Amino acid sequence: MHLNADFSQFVSVTPEQYRWVDAPIAGVERMMLDRVGDEVARATSLVRYAPNSQFSPHAHGGGEEILVLEGVFADEHGRYPAGSYLRNPIGTAHTPQIGDEGALIFVKLHQFDPNDTLQLAVPAHRLPWQPDRRPRIAYKMLHTFKQERISLEHWAAGTSIAYPTLKGGLELFILEGTLSDSTHHYTAGTWCRYPTGATPALTAGSEGVRMYLKRGHLTAA
After folding, report:
1. pTM > 0.85: yes or no
2. Interstrand relation of 28-37 and 78-81 (parallel, antiparallel or unpaired)
3. Rounded to whole angstroms, what are the CA distances from 146 to 78, 121, 218?
4. Please, what sign has the CA dihedral across residues 143, 144, 148, 153?
5. Which helix (H) or strand (E) holds 152?
6. CA–CA separation, 29 vs 49, rounded Å?
7. CA 90/CA 113 separation, integer angstroms
8. 205 to each of 12, 14, 25, 69, how far by Cα in Å?
9. Were 27 and a residue from 35, 50, 77, 80 both cysteine, which residue would form a disulfide, CB within 3.0 to 4.6 Å?
């Protein structure tokens, strides 16, 4: 399967475009955002777990990155409420086991640098916001490796940023509020991917915006 697999092109997916499909495991659904491969794939997805569901034990052949959006994600290593950020490097393994709350996660698979071996479970919902050098922006840094940077950011209403030419692209997922670029207005739940070489100009809406951002990880392959 190839879905939004041309990483030299801009792509966005809004909540109105969501199409949930059943995973091979009962009680688990996926909304695929990008994908290269079949069941084992380089993939970015939303995954929704029904209460008391379980996913098969599996190893992470290319690494796994998770942001918990709703409910409580859990495995044999711990319980991770909404706002938790997890990194499971290449070679790690687990068995997701979801409780009564159910869970919705944003997950990226097979996108790790082989030398990025740090395993993380960050309670980002408990971390204080830090003031950015850019006015009216606060952030929570989640992970950095080489040129790759992953953070949560909170932009005050009307804040505008014109990015210089991107090296390694920019990917974002809107958690709260709204965001606009030169052509579109995006609501919470929207995922956008700007390629290497893009120069996006983004503006927070009247309520401000909170979002997950990942930079420096994309090539034009």
Report:
1. yes
2. unpaired
3. 28, 20, 13
4. positive
5. strand 148-155
6. 7
7. 9
8. 18, 16, 38, 21
9. 50
Instruction: Judge contact between 126 and 189, C-beta under 8 A.
Output: no
Q: What is the DSSP string of 154-165?
A: EE-TT-EEEPPS
Per-residue tokens: 42: 């380089």
pLDDT tens-place string over residues 110-167 = 999 999 999 999 999 999 999 999 999 999 999 999 999 999 999 999 999 999 999 9
Proportion of the chain in helix, strand, coil states, percent, rounded to 5: 5, 50, 45
| Cβ neighbours for 1, distance < 8 A, ≥ 6 positions apart | 35, 36, 37, 38, 41
The single residue listed with the structure tokens 């068995």 is: 95
Residue keyed to tokens 């690494």 = 63
157 sits in the region (left: phi over 0; alpha: psi -120 to 50; else beta) called beta
Which token pair is 85?
């950020």
Nearest CA to 34 among 53, 13, 55? 13
Q: What is the end-to-end Cα distance of the chain in Å, rounded?
A: 16
